[in-house]
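Box S2. Input/output pair 1.
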Amino acid sequence: MALEEFSEIAAARRIQRLSSHISPALTEPPQLQTEACSSRTRKLVVNGQALSLYMKGKHRDIQEKVHEFYNSRPDLQTPLEISKDDHRELCMRQLYALVREAGIRPFRYVADDPAKYFAIMEAVGSVDMSFGIKMGVQYSLWGGSVINLGTKKHRDKYFDGIDNLDYLGCFAMTELHHGSNVQGLQTTATFDPITDEFIIDTPHDGAIKWWIGNAAVHGKFATVFARLILPTHDTKGVSDMGVHAFIVPIRDMKTHQTLPGVEIQDCGQKVGLNGVDNGALRFRSVRIPRDNLLNRFGDVSRDGKYTSSLPTINKRFGATLGELVGGRVALAYSSVGVLKVSATIAIRYSLLRQQFGPPKQPEVSILDYQSQQHKLMPMLASTYAYHFATVYLVEKYSEMKKTNDEQLVADVHALSAGLKSYITSYTAKSLSVCREACGGHGYAAVNRFGGLRNDHDIFQTFEGDNTVLLQQVAADLLKRYKEKFQGGTLTVTWSYLRESMSSYLAQPNPVTARWEGEDHLRDPKFQLDAFRYRTSRLLQSVAMRLKKHSKTLGTFGAWNRCLNHLLTLAESHIETVILAKFIEAVRKCPDPSARAGLKLVCDLYALDRIWNDIGTYRNVDYVAPNKAKAIHKLAEYLSFQVRNVAKELVDAFELPDHVTRAPIAMQADAYSQYTQVVGF
């Protein structure tokens, strides 16, 4: 027995000695104590101007030009109460004025300088979200499809007319029976070798093109997505070559009358975005020249022979959709703009509004209440995080457009799908939070939350349903996970998986799991490691589940059985990318004061997310109970610190009164402005 005790003591000493060699300083960092922490006794000062310059970057001037132009034109500002028809005509006048009076030509930047185009779109969207979407339909969708899916002959013929708004157009993809499943579209384009034409047909009601922007009133052309049908000499008689894009005139250029064979109906009043004239299109044997096939990825010769540089229908379809990711990039970027406006209104109001207080003392700002800070300060931190993430997305998209690198195309496709889905969902929820945070005044239409919420709501659906897009992200992660174990390479955005997957296979470090010092919790390495660990764990576990269930349920059944797990994986990955880009943006900020402000909101973003999913970390002992408690307490304290510089942080968005247009958010004499609205 004595020998056994000796052996246990010796083993314990060896473990202790080994631990000291591995990490000589494994003593816990100082405990979280307000009094002892110098960073808590030093008041943070944020240089708002330097921060704004850093965030706006090189496209600050063009955004200011847009804001100043519309601020000087009351006739182009959208009134609070306006009919659907008047709103549509106003949006058309707003777009004409941008191009023909302000001299801003967005289409010239769609391909050559996407970052500038998206900056214009964000500024335009702050004037009227319907206006921003209408501009996007004209230039991103209709114009983008022509220059991205067509060839030189199409660019030469249509570019100037699209640019100067002579050729107003639509993007006719969605059908009544098919939205997300684009490969299932039923509209047909049958080649007639005798007349050298395509015949566009809507075979049944389910194939009617639906929700087509610019179709109900203003559009003269449509890019129509249809199944290319070629006659053959075999027993089938025809061959279906898959979905292709065709330019189809829908109205007469001079009279604006609907062309023969084209039927157009108005989709009517919508929940929001009523300045956009959405319509439905039916085609009855509409003939178009063979040259109207947008033939970058597939062409038909005069004698009806099909040629393509891509070998399969799936490859061609993927390439076609890959060229259309700009719409998702634009929505992610624009959604951040909406989040900036709503957060600015709610925070400015919360700083102004006073309610209750200590006995016999003045009332306090409602942003001094912890509950209000909990609602709005993590949201402000997230707004900054999403800003830098979408700036990164735009940079990657611009690089993709210049290089056409195949690996980069795949990266941008998944990244745009994930960020569009994640950010638009977050903004949609945040708009309701902001409305509630402003109490009864938030319910007044003049203070904008209702209009913003209604207009933005569809961002979660068009350009790809958010749930479907997250599944694309999950599928891409699983594909790369498989490649990793087959010796394949990982692109930059996914490269962290190589290291963190290996870390996941090991047990969490029981020592670091208990560290709770502020320096440790605010260390970017700890934060990013935690995010990456969670994603890697989810990826590993869902891969095993899919393998198990596919044996009995098949591939489709297994995917459906694991669907919620897959969606959580996709969201976790996107949060990891967002944090990585935020940390990088903090490091690169040249001004020390602005950098300190960014570091504060970055830490709040990271710790708030960790706390929100603390169960995942606790289940595997990645975070011990004492550390979990410290994370929660520090996140609450950081919210308080952000509150102290909230004005500087929202002012750095540079959204002046004429942009926010909410009386309760006016920076000077807000209540006076508000009482004037109701007639006092």
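Box S3. Input/output pair 2.
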Amino acid sequence: MLLFIHSSMAKKALLIGINYPGTAVELRGCVNDVRRMQKCLIDRYGFSNKDITVLIDTDKTSIQPTGKNIREALKKLIAEGEPGDVLVFHYSGHGTRLPTEEGLFDATDYDECITPCDMNLITDNEFRDMVAEVKKGCLLTIISDSCHSGGLIEEAKEQIGESYVNKPKSRIVTFLVSIVRSLLTTCGISSNDSQRGSGGGHDSVTRESELEDGETVDMKTRYLPLDSYISLLKEQTGQTDIKCGKIRQTLVKVFGEDSSPHVMLSNSMKRNAHRGLLGMFIGKREVNTDGAGSEVKSKHPNNGILLSGSRSEDVYVTRTGKAYGAFSDAIQTILSGTRQEITNKEMVLRAREILKKQKFGQRPASLQRPQLPWVVDPLRLLLPKSPQSVQNVILTFLVSGVVFIPLGAICLFASQGVIEIVDQYDIDCIPLSFRDNKVRYIQGLEDKRCNRTITVTKTMKNPVYVYYQLENYYQNHRRYVKSRQDGQLRSPKDENDVKSCAPEDTVGGEPIVPCGLVAWSLFNDTYDFTRNNQKLSVNKKDISWKSDRDSKFGKNVFPKNFQKGFPIGGKSLDPKIPLSEQEDLIVWMRTAALPIFRKLYGKIETDLEAGDTIKVLLQNNYNTYSFNGKKKLVLSTTSWLGGRNDFLGIAYLTVGSICLSLAVFFSVLYLAKPRQLGDPSYLSWNRSAGGGR
């Protein structure tokens, strides 16, 4: 270890040991780890004592390892490091995990943190930002003897030894579990079991064990469960209402600007939310989704090494009272047993052998790569729950296609089952002598009766709906839509309120009820149907919306001065019938959004058999000729989807087909030429064509 340290280099170190004395999660060996590392750096590697900063919490006269002090000390260490210098950062203490903020994606749903003595957490993302400032050519060695300091995925490139990281669950299972955890977090509920389920969690409890040499020891994991952390945070801050979902707010409230900027949801946190505690030391990374590591790059290559204890344990020897961290002790044991330089790979493998013999559960990890020695937790970068992962994108398109295509087929089938008869009569009902001057005919006093014949091609089960269809008619024109007074329609007290109804507001100084252009232009063509010389009655009751009849048109509001002016716009209303019963008016007053629309005229409540001949006597009264409009009579059945409308089914089929095609395309592309996700270098404007960065 530290084979690159030579006497000609400037050497500086920051050593942090936190025992949390007097708390329920007190450790015993962290400060001892720091003292031993300090002596090792001075005696073996020639560090000067004045260049070693020590932060411990057992000596109240020294600088305490609070969140603020650790940040400042680490920033100072990195800022003072020049090219050619060697920096060492050692941390012994508790590690914990803070649930990620809603809307951010993380492979484990947590931000990994180190736990200062004042509970002012330092997140993995904040560490990454600080360590990224190491100058090019300055070497940084980081030794972390705490839980949740990361691990290597199985079969990762240049992995040293085996990884403790559990094989991830299927993406669907993980996604569903994350939803449940999010709901629990929202409700302020947390459990250690749920943390275990997400990989790598373990209780901070003491257990007794016997070492290979026969010594009896008490061992305690250096992991701080979330519930324990919340209890300590309550003690430190005096806040009593801290829940899982309020930890970040509490840290900001208590520590203010001294809290982690990533706790305060900075842009950097959102940018790096997928990285673990080891991932805090990297800039960019790619990892194959099959578990094989690939090229790694950082802001400054060739300048970092990390030795991680991962599942760290605090050891107390019952007989002698000696206390230490298992991983730190293994390092010191190896160094004291050899005077030759030792590589990091050899260090880790030997440490694993020692810990395994002593029945510790730790699996130390180290990684030093030719292009980036920064150690990462590749599991973080797989992003199994990220919507940007190619698997989830393909799955989304596939599910959308599978859902939309059958739904479109069902809608289209239902629409095709609707039987419609459409008869355009506006031209045919104009006498030949008036074909060149239709407006004169429609405004004149000539007989407007017109006979039409309709043949039923398929049996139409009752009720058969009768519609009139108008085209090139803009009921959505702003001035037209605003020319009405809804208050007047509801209450007789407001009959004089006609301020928005001009030009159809008053006649001879008296208010018009209902006023406005919408009511004035009420459709007034009429239809009478006969079959085999027998009249087919048209039921015009309940053709409007019940909510309109009950709340928008008053039962004690009657037409007054309606169609008494000039010119007459459309149909007249019976002044003895209240507006709530004038259903033709109610239907018409619900204005259409498009220039082609249908409105319900009535219902024929008898079956029309195939081959029936229906004769229609209609009154062609309504003037659509002034604006080149069209009028059509429509007889139609309905389905569970309503009237005939192929658009919805076609739209579903089109979108479903596109989604399914994209799913197939992306699957083929991914299998034939996969590329890794989450790599910002693909967004770089100056990225070379060959893929280099």
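Caption for Box S3: The two ends are 30 Å apart (CA to CA). The chain is about 30% helix and 20% strand.
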